[in-house]
Amino acid sequence: METASTMGSMIDEPLDLVKLCLDEKIYVKLRGNRELSGRLHAYDQHLNMVLEDVEEKITIIPDNSPQDAPFQVIYNSLDFYIYT
């Protein structure tokens, strides 16, 4: 296992951190109250990602509801997902 000091020396740019996450389970927060979690298979310089064993979570909050009103959560499980 690598220590924080050796990992810090391996990370020079933000994409280096993403490179360390290849073949690891990651969590991606998207716009529109959407979240993805899955295994990072590939990515590019624009952070387009290819994820495997993906679980998508969509939270729906009604616009006219009070602050403490319940909200709806939708789960979707996918084997393979390409996020662009």
Automatic annotation (TrEMBL):
Regions annotated as coiled coil: none
InterPro entries to which the protein is assigned, alphabetical: LSM_dom_sf, Sm, Sm-like_LSM3, Sm_dom_euk/arc
Lineage summary: Eukaryota, Fungi, Fungi incertae sedis, Zoopagomycota, Kickxellomycotina
Provenance organism: Smittium culicis
Residue span(s) of domain Sm: 13-84
Protein name per UniProt: Putative U6 snRNA-associated Sm-like protein LSm3
Gene Ontology molecular function, alphabetical: RNA binding
CC annotations in GO: protein-containing complex
